[in-house]
Amino acid sequence: MMGTMELSRRGFLLLSAGTGFTLGFGALPAQGMPSPGFGPWIRIAPDGVVTALSNISDIGQGTHTGLAQAVAEELAVPFASVRVEMAPVEKAFFNQGNKKYAVYSSIGLRTNLRPLRMAAAGARQMLAEAAAIRFGVPVDQVVMHEGTASHAPTRRSLPYSALLADAVKLTPPTEPKLTPRTEWKVLGQSLPRLDIPAKVDGSTVYGLDVNLPGMLTAVVTHAPTFGGVLLSVDEAPALVVRGVRKVLRLPGALAVVGDGYWPAAKGLAALSPEWGPGPNAAIDSETLSRQLRDAAMAGQGYSFPVTEMQGTNITATAQALAGAAHVVDTLYEVPFLAHATMEPMHCTIQLRPAAAEIWLSTQTQSDTQAALARLLGLEPEQVIVNGMPAGGGFGRRLEHDFVLQAGHLAKALAADGITAPVKMIWPRETDMRSGYFRPAVAARVRLALGADGMPMGLRCDNANPSLLQHTGLIFAVGRSAGDWTVGMGVVRQSYVIPALHLTWTRVDPGVPVGFWRSVGSSQNCMFMETTIDQAARHLGADPVAYRRRLLVGKDRALTFMNRLTEAAGWGRPLPAGHALGFAMGEANNSISGHVVELSIPEPGKFRLHRIWVGIDPGVVANPQAVEAQVMGGTIFGLSAALTGEITLKDGMVEQSNFDTYPLVALAQVPPMEVLVIGNNTAAGGVGEEGVPSIAPAIANALFALTGTPITRLPLTRAGWAMV
User: Fold this and answer.
1) Are residues 377 and 467 in the same domain?
2) Are residues 502 and 619 located together in one domain of the fold?
3) Which end of the chain is more exposed for a tag (fewer CB within 10 A), N or C?
4) What φ, ψ does residue 332 adopt, rounded to 5°?
5) DSSP 3-state of 105
6) What pLDDT digit, counting tens, does each position of 221-270 carry?
7) Is residue 430 assigned to a domain?
8) CA separation for the pair 555, 561 (Å, rounded)
9) Apex CA 277: angle with CA 416 and CA 235, to 5°?
10) Is 213 within 8 Å of 348 (Cβ atoms)?
């Protein structure tokens, strides 16, 4: 049997079929789930299994577990009965605001938790009404629990499966009633993540694990300079390797195709290609550093036309700097950073007549689909995208350069009559050197202080390449528009600063840059928080006590800072030679921060004794998952702070693997305590929020011990190493 009903844009869709029932809910926030006319999001099977669809890839952040908890809570079914699957990559499942099927900017639960709760709550209300009609009782006497509708006075109960056919005939609620937070039984609990068992037993199939019948493997190397071209190559040394099928010349790259990874990799290693240097062969880090610093000091960049920085604000900032009792004036610099995902870039592609199918780990299925369709001369609907579990994303998988390269490779093979599926893999060295790094940035920060020590105005002059330009997002690069990512962590931050002026000068060395975990906040939190500590030291004030003066009227941020610093015992007596450092930031409707305790056992060496990390992400779906994310973000940020750096010489990236781009090992991580502060505000971001404040917290602790501010990262560049 199949039943349907006509719905308004604010309605539900509940339909029955031989395999179960599906439901969707509409009129949701711009970044949330689509309306019912665009497709179903929840399926209820006859055996009680509930499947929720998601257009958010779970790339290790635990989003799918949180969504499952939302469905279980609002639908009143056992958590163990809920599954989460990726929705088809079709327009019906794109977010209605940005028209994308993607995960970025910590949007997983931030934009999808409430919509999915609304959908599940609406289904529960319709099922309850169906039960009330069947029982002949008022609906408020029906109790929904564990997938069953019950009426206690008459001791009657029915499973949801027995009610679905009746529920489909009912008028859907326009405003589903959500379960109050005080009554949560599933949401807000630290339930086991759905993805962990398969990851522990090794059964998770990552994108790199895809294996299709008759599949070939291609291993790729790129020109050593950005924009370099292949001049010539003798293919013979590769073709004599057993298992090698083909040597292919691609735009700016060379690929060897074989029966498996090792034959292809061995064949590639046997080649000695001659590369033309291209237009960027003269790039080196020392020259770029001077260019960035000079541009930041000149302060002639574009002034942003955002609400927080109107012309009056610019004038007020200039007046504040001119009339200040003291100006904290600091020039900062941070380097290019790699994403260094454990799973390198890859894409498996199968071309068919008037169609293509790909398997990959990605953060942006919709953009990938559209870009590959354009390359192949297809409509997006003719490209099937299978988003696989990812071994890390951190923003790198928002790009589709590697997907287009797989498309070029498949076209070249098809031209030679080879139509087998092919898995294209970038070896670690190719992955590390191929760009879309976090931009290198120099910034001059000037904080004007009045006679009372309070900020009067802040000016920040940034110089860096534009990640929006390199990622292809639509915006004009020049004096008429700005790269909004430059202002993250400066334009919107917690402190009361009356006047603010931010400028940006684009310095483009031709190195591809892109989104990196926490984006602009990753450097701007360092600039802001170390500047605040310098102001406190100038006044002879405790850094946390000084911040309390800057957070008057900012109750949420003040509460967060007080609770985190209290947890760390701020102000307690410390062993000789020890110091605490604090830093915090605000982004994605969340507040996060760090306190570190460290000592200096010998000149140029410091030892981290303990880290306290806190986050206020609003509504907390799964506290343990939040803890895991901020701990992971802390370690990610710690690696960048200590040694993270991509350098260039003669236009070539000098790092190639983890021996030259080291990451922090677990044995190096000190004891870490996590404070998760939930509240009734909307869900905020979590995945990126553990990153920005660890570096300035360490820098501020070192500053407390030495009196010398840290103005350059990584810390090795400032003369420091962790022991």
Assistant:
1) no
2) yes
3) N
4) -110, 160
5) coil
6) 999 999 999 999 999 999 999 999 999 999 999 999 999 999 999 999 99
7) no
8) 10
9) 35
10) no
